[in-house]
Structures are given as C-alpha cells and as structure tokens.
Design brief:
Elements: H1 3-22, E1 43-52, E2 61-66, E3 75-84, E4 88-93, E5 100-105, E6 114-123, E7 126-127, H2 141-146, H3 158-168, H4 174-188, E8 190-191, H5 203-209, E9 213-214, H6 216-229, E10 234-241, E11 256-257, E12 262-270, E13 274-278, H7 280-289, H8 299-307, E14 311-312, E15 316-320, E16 342-345, E17 348-349, E18 359-368
Parallel strand pairs: 8-9
Antiparallel strand pairs: 1-6, 1-18, 2-5, 2-16, 3-6, 4-5, 7-14, 10-12, 10-15, 11-18, 12-13, 16-17
Helix pairs in contact: 3-5, 3-6, 4-6, 4-7, 7-8
C-alpha cells in the first residue's frame, strides 16, 4: 500500500475517534462482570511487525499476515505501510478465504534483510443478544459450503462426526446445537501451557487419542469442526491480542510487546442471528491463568463462560479465516493457518515459533480509545 492510501485511511481514524469520544466508557470490572458492548464505541490501533532475517542460507523469502477481516459492525482494516530493504514487496491473497499477506524477497547479496510493516485498524466490541432472534438473510450456497467442509486438520467425518451427533442429540435449533457444543468443549478440554505456539488444530487426532488439551488453535478448532460436523457453518478467526482487557482479566489481553500474543477465536452461523462470536478456549485460559486453583465453578470463570458464547471484547486484531494456506512463491508445504510471520531460505522454512532464531517483533499501540 502506498503512502497516499495510508494517509487517506488515517484521516478516517478521526471519524472513529470522534465516535469513540462520544461513547460511554468502560468501567473496570472489579466484580468480574464481563459484558462487552458495541455501545462502548470504536477504538483504533496500530500494530507494527518488524522482521530481521539472516542471509546465511541464501536469499530469504517472507510472508506477513495483514488485517483482512472487514465487517462494518465490528472491525475495519485501515491500511498498511512498509519500509525495509527488500528487493520486492507485494500484497497477496489466499484464493479461497481471502487472507491477505505481505510477501517480500531479498537479493542474495543483501547482508541484513529487514522489513517493518505498520497496520492500522478500527474495532469495537461484539455482543449478540441471543434472546432476540432477528431477520437475517441465509448464507449463500458457496459460503455455506466453504464453512461446513473438512480441511486437512479440521475433519468433519469419522470420530468428529460421531462426537458432534452425540453432543447435539435432542437439540432442536441451530442455537441449541451451537450452545451444546460450546458447553461440551468447555467441560471436556483443558488448556495446556506446554503446547507450542497456539497449537495445530488436529481435532481428529485429539478425539482419537482422548487428549483434549492444547491452546486456542486446538480448542477453538475443535469447536469449529464439531459445529461443521453437526451441520452448522463455523470458522476459526486467526489474529493477535493488542490491548489489555478493560474488564479486569489479566489472562485475556496483552499490550505493548505482542510478539507472543497470537490468539484464534471462532464464529458459528446461526439462523436468525448470523455470525455469532464464541471462544471456549479463552474460558479455559481464564481457568488456568487468571489465578491459581480456579475451577469452572469459580465466579471469574463462570462470567467468562457466560460471556464468550455470543460476545467478544475487541482488544484483538482479526487477520483471516484461512485454512490450508499456500504461501505464494514458497517451496514448502501449505500452512494449517496463517497467524504468525513466515519465512524460508535455501535451507527451508524457518521456525515461526522461535522468534529468537527467526527474529521478529510485534508491537501494538492504541490511537484512539472509548
């Protein structure tokens, strides 16, 4: 994106800032009340990603996820700027899910490849009143097919199908099915702090082994796969936390250095409601990390459990919904999802979960606040 485009989108931030200033402010939830509301107004953030690569094993190639989720009700990308010494830099798009990325290459003789990208976006909280069905147009056939199909790791047949049918037996509506799956995932999974990164999302492997532990890309993928297997369109939403929680949850936010703050959420399509936000993985994160010794019966966990079926606090950037992502120009295999910086050289793909060896840093800054 050229500088003129970013300046144009930056001007739009003034509109969001004015709306935010006029909106009511959050109250810090000392009593652990957790009620995100769109009425709190829009917030504008900048996320800066800086990557420093080694030229020791040949000319490197780099792919960085860019904000691509665009919904007028809760998130709007506002442009990207880049600087560095790459020979080529271009935006690319996944042809199936529309995931956006910045793809860069360097000349073989460049001794210190570096690239920095600044992405700006506006967002506001999401909350769906599930007691008030509305008139929502049905999904078109292509979109429904995309978000009910299997992917390489997000299977919808075999043990996944059987488990989904067992969970939803007797459920009469889409809402009943979606809630039954949510409650089952919360009750039967655990967050595993030893899982690398955010996990892999191999849900059939989880069910077959009986090991239902992991992190967000595992637990929320399990929700999505079970929902799809039960006939509900559902999708993972891959992104990164960008600010502390305004509701007092230290485990549900990250500000400043967000290099390791990647987080996957989920959505499910329900008749009469449309896309509904859910996040069973964060319920398990609260139970493990908010303070020692918590169980699902403690108030702070109960509040998160009640809220995260139908609402998200939007201190978080959504990148994309993509699975089985092919990196343009890459010599490596497809990715299960695109949420981390990716790079490779003549020796192969670098480990995106080792920012000490594959040096990158993400930083978040709030531009306007409700």
């Amino acid at each position: 994106m050229d500088r003129r485009t970013f300046i144009k989108t930056a001007a739009a931030s003034a509109t969001f800032a004015a709306a935010a200033a006029a909106a009511p402010r959050f109250a810090f939830a000392a009593d652990n009340a957790f009620k995100p509301s769109p009425a709190a107004g829009w917030r504008v953030f900048e996320v800066t990603t800086r990557v420093e690569l080694s030229a020791a094993n040949g000319a490197p190639r780099l792919w960085l996820p860019l904000p691509a989720v665009d919904d007028a009700t809760w998130i709007k990308p506002m442009g990207n700027l880049w600087q560095g010494n790459a020979a080529t830099v271009k935006t690319a798009s996944d042809p199936h899910y529309g995931a956006q990325m910045l793809a860069a290459t360097w000349e073989a003789g460049e001794p210190a490849p570096v690239l920095e990208v600044v992405s700006r976006f506006a967002t506001r909280n999401r909350a769906i009143d599930l007691s008030q069905p509305g008139k929502v147009a049905p999904l078109d056939k292509a979109t429904r097919a995309l978000y009910t199909k299997s992917t390489e790791l997000l299977r919808t047949d075999g043990i996944v199908k059987k488990t989904a049918l067992d969970i939803t037996k007797g459920a009469k509506t889409d809402l009943d099915k979606a809630r039954a799956i949510y409650e089952w995932v919360v009750d039967n999974t655990e967050r595993n702090p030893k899982t690398r990164g955010c996990g892999t999302g191999d849900i059939a492997g989880m069910l077959e082994s009986g090991n239902l532990s992991g992190k967000c890309a595992d637990l929320n993928a399990l929700y999505v796969g079970l929902a799809r297997a039960a006939g509900l369109p559902a999708r993972d939403v891959y992104g990164v936390r960008v600010a502390d929680s305004k509701f007092g949850y230290k485990s549900l936010g990250k500000s400043g250095d967000i290099t390791k703050a990647q987080h996957c959420r989920a959505e499910v399509w329900l008749a009469n409601f449309g896309w509904v936000p859910v996040d069973p993985a964060d319920v398990r994160k609260v139970a493990l990390e908010e303070k020692p010794g918590l169980t699902l019966k403690d108030d702070v966990v109960v509040a998160a459990r009640e809220t995260l079926f139908g609402a998200w606090e939007m201190n978080w950037l959504a990148y994309n919904f993509a699975h089985d992502v092919g990196l343009p120009g890459s010599k490596g295999s497809k990715l299960p999802f695109l949420m981390y910086p990716q790079a490779e050289n003549n020796a192969g793909r670098l480990d995106s979960l080792d920012p000490a060896a594959f040096v990158y840093k993400l930083a978040a800054k709030e531009i306007t606040s409700a």
